[in-house]
Amino acid sequence: MNIRHDAHVIGQGRRKVLMLHGWFGHARGWGPMVQHLDTDAFSYAFMDYRGYGHRKGSGGPYTIAQIAHDALALADQLGWERFALVGHSMGGSAIQYVLAEAAQRVQALVGITPVPASGVPFDPEGWAFFSAAAQDAATRRAIIDLTTGRRLTGTWLDAMVRSSLAHSDVEAFAAYLNAWAKTAFVERIQGQTVPVLVVAGEHDPALGEATCRATWLQHYPNARLEVMTNAGHYPMDETPIALVTAMERFLRDVMSV
Prior knowledge:
The protein is an alpha/beta fold. It has one domain: 3-Layer(aba) Sandwich (Rossmann fold). Helix content is 39%, strand content 15%. The protein has helices at residues 64-78, 90-101, 124-131, 137-147, 154-166, 170-182, 209-214, 216-219, 235-238, 240-254, and strands at 8-10, 15-20, 42-47, 83-88, 106-112, 196-201, 224-228. β4 (83-88), α2 and β5 form a beta-alpha-beta unit. The radius of gyration is 17 Å and the shape is globular.
């Protein structure tokens, strides 16, 4: 499969950015933030994972390592020798795996409500709840509602569930839970000095400020943390302009052109 044709590429700027989506996302599922991106200063490539978006039906493997390898292959096809990476949620793990595989090519990382390189611990009840989401739309809705602080309109929750169901294979969705929760590789990113911005949502109960401080800011001592007020786990939908402003301000500051 030609990975390049499965990527959504916008912009013609000299700063190159790979965008890796979350468990409920896909390449064209980044919400209203996309319309606010500076496409003169940046070029953005939004990649679908295996089993998602334009790669539905592709088959696996559905692993963080494979996402990272596909991201590097996409960068090669685009002719991007050096680039930054932005990862939402599960994509936060994947961007760090790219760093572990090819640190010399990575100019910066932006983790948006991101999974850390240590994985995410679950108790048995929580694991059963999240595991049910692959087959059950109501559970997907409950997870999105929980991770945004149970404060957002059901119209948006329903739309997020419909998008998730339409743009992911059940087999892939189920397998990626294990991938993002249980892939741990902290030792591989020790000592990295790449510029890192971590964006936490004020209303995110799982991957919020406290978790980011205990993981990302320990793993990357020079990392910057920005807390999005009035956002939970999906600031690209909840606070899109504020998110883009913070992200692009950081990337302009740290990326040479």
